[in-house]
């Protein structure tokens, strides 16, 4: 059976869904692997490296031979036209708000898996694309923030005088925020961080940063059973805004990462807060693709406010370190695909009762099957 890895057609997507290591693994499992020519170029993986690992180098139309397509982004309708009826497609499907595209997957007859729905259980940690990519995004947010900031980050005591350490504030300390704290600390900044989940407090302290939050009764209940944040009440948001307003005016770089699954990103930084910041300070909004945490952030742009604060709204932060991101993403995919391979028959055998399959399968046999999208027409 054949696995196909295309070149991503989205102009904002430099990542690729395979690495030489994962190709080797697929070949060793008895599968034929075709990688589209140039698929790895933007992730610094030449075709020759894929070929050396055992893949054949093909063209886009080879998608039609595939039993499994491994991708970064959800296939477009044009791409789907080439796929075999019944082929499995594994990617980041970004299904919320894109119900017509989910219906199109069903209509194309593919069995589509949304990697972002992988349950956060021990067995699936190696398949957790949200973590592998958010970790790099958190790192890159600090690097991009530092690049836009025109002062040094660490304290420097020199014969010519002392440069003070930059103050960096991280808002939202899930996977991305924790890596942002670690990166900012490595660069010598003085780091504070906030979140609405009490579990974050200890994690922030363990990374050597100071935790700042409204720690009332609601805060104590803010974490869902799945480990995510709830949407907070208006009263909590007002208290949080007051605390943020006072703190943010003293910061040099702010990184915002706050997300609530299936909801727009919470607005944490208002225009008034931006106006209170010092000229030359920088905000990086990692939530910009989900509506943004910062008022005035523009997806895909760096904007400068009237008082000279830069708001960085880069798209696809993990894609800005594509060579690293692709290696981890490819590993996540293969770990999942392996659970669906009958090793004796050397063939794909999807167990529809497996909890990982149930959690991630969006469409199957012409229908939208995921419970969260039960109403999407197919
Ligand atoms: P996320 O990307 O959904 O959100 C980022 C952060 O924003 C979260 O920490 C969230 O609490 C915070 N946030 C939401 N609303 C906020 C607000 N109004 N103000 C401030 N902060 C706000 O989160 P994530 O990175 O996916 O992590 C979510 C949880 O999952 C964490 O507890 C993390 O440790 C856990 N996790 C578990 C596993 C695993 O067990 N395999 C893997 C990864 C993450």
TrEMBL record:
GO terms for biological process: NADPH regeneration. The lineage of its organism: Bacteria, Pseudomonadati, Pseudomonadota, Alphaproteobacteria, Hyphomicrobiales. Residues 4-137 form the Alanine dehydrogenase/pyridine nucleotide transhydrogenase N-terminal domain. It catalyses: NAD(+) + NADPH + H(+)(in) = NADH + NADP(+) + H(+)(out). It comes from the Bacteria. This is NAD(P) transhydrogenase subunit alpha part 1. Its EC number is 7.1.1.1. It comes from Borborobacter arsenicus. It is an enzyme of class 7 (translocase). The transhydrogenation between NADH and NADP is coupled to respiration and ATP hydrolysis and functions as a proton pump across the membrane. One of its GO terms (cellular component) is plasma membrane. One of its GO terms (molecular function) is oxidoreductase activity. Residues 146-313 form the Alanine dehydrogenase/pyridine nucleotide transhydrogenase NAD(H)-binding domain. Keywords: NAD, NADP, Nucleotide-binding, Oxidoreductase, Translocase. Belongs to the AlaDH/PNT family. Pfam families: AlaDh_PNT_C, AlaDh_PNT_N.
């Amino acid at each position: 059976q054949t696995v196909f890895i295309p070149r991503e057609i989205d102009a904002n997507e430099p990542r690729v869904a395979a690495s030489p290591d994962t190709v080797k693994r697929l070949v060793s499992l008895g599968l034929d692997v075709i990688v589209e020519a140039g698929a790895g170029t933007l992730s610094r993986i030449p075709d020759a490296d894929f070929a050396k690992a055992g893949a054949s180098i093909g063209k886009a139309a080879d998608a039609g031979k595939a039993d499994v397509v491994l991708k970064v982004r959800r296939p477009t309708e044009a791409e789907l036209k080439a796929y075999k009826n019944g082929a499995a497609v594994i990617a980041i499907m970004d299904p919320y708000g894109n119900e017509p595209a989910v219906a199109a997957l069903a209509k194309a007859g593919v069995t589509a898996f949304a990697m972002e729905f992988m349950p956060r259980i021990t067995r699936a940690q190696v398949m957790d694309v949200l973590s592998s990519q958010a970790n790099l995004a958190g790192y890159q947010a600090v690097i991009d923030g530092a690049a836009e900031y025109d002062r040094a980050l660490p304290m420097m005591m020199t014969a010519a005088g002392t440069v003070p350490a930059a103050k960096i504030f991280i808002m939202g300390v899930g996977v991305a925020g924790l890596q942002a704290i670690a990166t900012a600390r490595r660069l010598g900044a003085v780091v504070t961080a906030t979140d609405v989940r009490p579990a974050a407090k200890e994690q922030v302290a363990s990374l050597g940063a100071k935790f700042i939050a409204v720690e009332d009764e609601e805060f104590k209940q803010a974490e869902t059973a799945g480990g995510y944040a709830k949407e907070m009440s208006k009263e909590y948001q007002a208290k949080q805004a007051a605390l943020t307003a006072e703190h943010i005016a003293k910061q040099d770089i702010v990184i915002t990462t706050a997300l609530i699954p299936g909801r727009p990103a919470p607005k944490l930084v208002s225009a008034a807060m931006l106006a209170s910041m010092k000229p030359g300070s920088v905000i990086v909004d990692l939530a910009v693709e989900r509506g943004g945490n910062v008022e005035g952030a523009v997806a895909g742009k760096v904007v400068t406010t009237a008082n000279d604060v830069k708001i960085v709204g880069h798209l696809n932060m993990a894609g800005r370190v594509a060579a690293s991101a692709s290696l981890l993403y490819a590993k996540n995919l293969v770990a999942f695909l392996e659970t669906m391979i009958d090793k004796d028959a050397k063939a794909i055998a999807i167990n529809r009762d497996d909890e990982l399959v149930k959690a991630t399968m969006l469409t199957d046999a012409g229908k939208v099957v995921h419970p969260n999208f039960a109403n999407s027409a197919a």
